Amino acid sequence: MSLLQQICRLPARTLFFALFAICVGLLGGGLYLQHVVGLQPCPMCIMQRYAFVAVALIALIAALHGPAATGARVYALLTGITALAGAGVAARQSWMQLNPPEIPECGPGLEYLLESFPLGQSLPMIFRGAGDCATIDWTFLGLSLANWSLLCFCAVIAFSAWLALRRSGG
């Protein structure tokens, strides 16, 4: 039996735990870049972190629960929807990096926005981004952090879709 076949036969509990561990690793990498390398996250970066935290928490709950097939599909749907939201933020930031605003402005930080405005007003401001959201401070293999985040969210979406649609495992 090949490695891929063995992975496909793993129970949902194990796969959700793997997703949790991967998300924790991604978040750890972001914290390393912030606290060791010195890259400060913009509001859109922080929103992407929140999405990874939400995916990780859903995956951890699913792993601890050890759901049957229907429950695994529900958890997979929840992780997929959450990753879709994160991908939307990452895609918007990637687009801003490709098409930076003519007049870069540094807007207020995420904490200030959330403390000073109702959520309905602060979310549009966050998605509008600021000058620092369009800045590319770090790249790996020619891709910015927003690009990598988008790829990771797309992988989570694909993984979630596979988990939701697979016939075996529970």
Automatic annotation (TrEMBL):
Its main location: membrane. The chain crosses the membrane at residues 12-34, 46-65, 72-91, 145-165. It is a multi-pass membrane protein. Disulfide bonds join C42-C45. Keywords: Cell inner membrane, Cell membrane, Chaperone, Disulfide bond, Electron transport, Membrane, Oxidoreductase, Redox-active center, Transmembrane, Transmembrane helix, Transport. Residues 33-50 are periplasmic. Residues 1-15, 68-73, 167-170 are cytoplasmic. InterPro entries: DiS_bond_form_DsbB/BdbC (IPR003752), Disulphide_bond_form_DsbB (IPR022920), DsbB (IPR050183), DsbB-like_sf (IPR023380). It is found in: Cell inner membrane; Cell membrane. Pfam families: DsbB. Required for disulfide bond formation in some periplasmic proteins. Acts by oxidizing the DsbA protein. Belongs to the DsbB family. This is Disulfide bond formation protein B. The gene is dsbB.
